[in-house]
Amino acid sequence: MPLKILSAGAVKQGVATVAANYARATNDEIKIEFATAPKLRERVLAGETADVIVAPPAAMDMFEQHGKIAAGSRGHVGRSRVGVVIHKDAAAPDVSDTVAFTSALRNASAVVYNTASSGIYIEKLLDKLGLKNELAARSVQVQSGSAIMEAVAARPPGAVGLAQISEVMVLIDKGCPVKLVAPLPDEIQNITRYDAAACSGSANPQAACALARELASDAAKKIFVASGID
User: I need a surface site. Which of 37, 38, 41, 90 has the fewest CB within 10 A?
Assistant: First the structure.
């Protein structure tokens, strides 16, 4: 029976690479399913079983409270930042500070973000910057990080997407016609941490703990850094 990983989408490339390397080294079969953090919470708390979970701390804390992860198995995977993405043929706007970033959004034909953890942060940020109502008619909310890039690619070059940098890199590698302008300015940046842990309901707890340790290992961190997770 394969080991099953439930993982947040922002760390997709790193999780897939580490899992593939681990599978080759151990001959274990590994199945991975990706979802947004809110969907992961729904699925796990509804009773879905897995062997390993990779998710942000808020979700992991909830899983711990409900006894869903094995004691002592939780480890840090890495951190993801939010970046500004545009169509590959568009001129890059200045987003070097909060004032410039705000101006770039005001000049955008559409502002695209998702319903995952980063999108929840973006909604709060737009409100904080006094842009939520002003941009309401041009705001486009999609379900996933990959959908952000697809939406930006499908619109005229004036659209701006706000997405996890790791997810931007994955779509660019796949040939999506978008480009990363820069991370959000430091003063308004959102850093999302991701942890890995073995599930308490795993049918193979020893293998689950070993795989969780591998995802949080020093060797794995080098792979995650290459995928945009620092």
Answer: 38
